[in-house]
């Protein structure tokens, strides 16, 4: 009964019966009410408490299931930055598409470029086209849109392909490092060691591991609930921003990222490191300076891409989740957009065979246009 009297007092706290006068007249107030009226007031107070509690529960449930879309803040939230950023990334996207497609066409049309190194390079260019197409078109739409939204299904789909292409590129860079190692350290067995069948198997392995890895991470993200906010401080659906938004425990996700994810990324990186250590040892044994320059020239382009790609990825993903800032968005631009755009320039400007192949391609195009 004392609990119900307390509820009655709380219910009438906005009346003159509360406060100093309320304490003086509280007994008088209870005395005025009859037993039936008091029970009715208690019942109403109980109904009110149940109603408000139910409302809070329903509000929480609605928040949990109502995240049907996310808001991508992008690189900047200032309105005056949107059009310049649109122009910048549109130009970068066009350069990426044209440059990488020219690389693919030049390799496919020149018989002198039908080697394992250029086979992997053509696949890398194709992956870069797919990689940027997964990200940039949505960025361009959001730059010119007031509501920078992406549906939940689109977000999960984008994250799957983004992770799949990123990991495939990582394994392709490792395959290219192995190719350079065999070419320099074991040139007499290069043709048999890096046969077309083995190159295709390396490609199939890279794609399979990458697809399974991205599928696992997306399924783990999909089991989380998002109830407090749907605003992603990024220009794409990435793992770390979504983990920070989750209102359910992310312990399993973080364990998988720091174990399986670490193995998936570190394995190709270690292949690259070991290959280039062996290459360096072999090159230092070459007596002539011209031979050393030639050996290093075949590896310089690949080393530049490896540094850009792995350096930015390590910066983004191998730091505490709580330290995620605007710098991570800039680093993501480097390994997603910038490296894909620079890929044709890095491999063509420093490679005589690629320059010659591009000249042949452009010459054939010019002759076809004139005829």
TrEMBL record:
Keyword Lyase listed? The answer is no
Its transmembrane ranges are 85-107, 119-140, 160-178, 199-221, 262-284, 296-318, 330-349
Q: Organism's domain of life?
A: Eukaryota
Q: What UniProt keywords are attached to this protein's entry?
A: Cell membrane, G-protein coupled receptor, Membrane, Olfaction, Receptor, Sensory transduction, Transducer, Transmembrane, Transmembrane helix
- Topology in the lipid bilayer: Multi-pass membrane protein
What main location does UniProt list?
membrane
| Residue span(s) of domain G-protein coupled receptors family 1 profile | 99-347
Keyword hit for Transmembrane helix: yes
The protein's location, in the record's own words, is:
Cell membrane; Membrane
Task: Please provide an example of a Pfam family that matches this protein in its UniProt record.
Answer: 7tm_4
Give the InterPro entries listed for this entry. Answer: GPCR_Rhodpsn, GPCR_Rhodpsn_7TM, Olfact_rcpt
Q: What does this protein do?
A: Putative odorant or sperm cell receptor.
Under PANTHER family, the record lists: OLFACTORY RECEPTOR (PTHR48001)
Family to which the UniProt record says this protein belongs = Belongs to the G-protein coupled receptor 1 family.
Protein name, per record: Olfactory receptor
Q: What is the lineage of its organism?
A: Eukaryota, Metazoa, Chordata, Craniata, Vertebrata
């Amino acid at each position: 009964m004392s609990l119900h009297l307390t509820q009655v007092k709380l219910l009438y706290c906005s009346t003159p019966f509360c406060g100093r006068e309320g304490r003086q007249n509280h007994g008088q107030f209870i005395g005025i009410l009859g037993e039936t009226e008091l029970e009715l007031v208690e019942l109403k107070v109980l109904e009110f408490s149940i109603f408000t509690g139910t409302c809070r529960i329903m509000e929480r449930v609605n928040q949990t299931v109502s995240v049907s879309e996310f808001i991508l803040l992008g690189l900047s939230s200032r309105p005056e930055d949107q059009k310049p950023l649109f122009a910048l990334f549109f130009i970068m996207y066009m350069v990426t598409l044209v440059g990488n497609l020219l690389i693919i066409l030049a390799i496919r049309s020149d018989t002198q470029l039908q080697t394992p190194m250029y086979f992997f390079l053509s696949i890398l260019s194709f992956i870069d086209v797919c990689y940027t197409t997964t990200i940039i078109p949505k960025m361009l739409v959001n730059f010119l849109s007031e509501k920078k939204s992406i549906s939940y299904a689109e977000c999960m789909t984008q994250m799957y392909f983004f992770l799949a292409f990123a990991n495939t590129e990582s394994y392709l860079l490792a395959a290219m490092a192995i190719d350079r190692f065999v070419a320099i350290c074991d040139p007499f067995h290069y043709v048999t060691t890096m046969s077309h069948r083995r190159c295709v198997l390396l490609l199939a392995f890279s794609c399979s591991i990458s697809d399974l890895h991205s599928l696992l991470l997306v399924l783990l993200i999909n089991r989380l609930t998002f109830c407090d906010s749907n605003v992603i401080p990024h220009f794409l659906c990435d793992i770390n921003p979504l983990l920070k938004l989750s209102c359910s425990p992310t312990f399993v996700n973080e364990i998988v990222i720091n174990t399986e994810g670490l193995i998936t990324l570190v394995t190709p990186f270690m292949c690259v490191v070991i290959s280039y250590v062996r290459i360096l040892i072999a090159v230092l044994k070459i007596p002539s300076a011209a031979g050393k320059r030639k050996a290093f020239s075949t590896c310089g382009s690949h080393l530049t891409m490896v540094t850009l790609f792995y350096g930015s990825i390590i910066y983004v993903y191998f730091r505490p989740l709580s330290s995620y800032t605007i710098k991570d968005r800039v680093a993501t631009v480097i390994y997603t957009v910038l490296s894909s755009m620079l890929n044709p320039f890095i491999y063509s400007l420093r490679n005589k065979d690629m320059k010659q192949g591009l000249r042949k391609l452009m010459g054939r195009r010019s002759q076809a246009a004139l005829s």
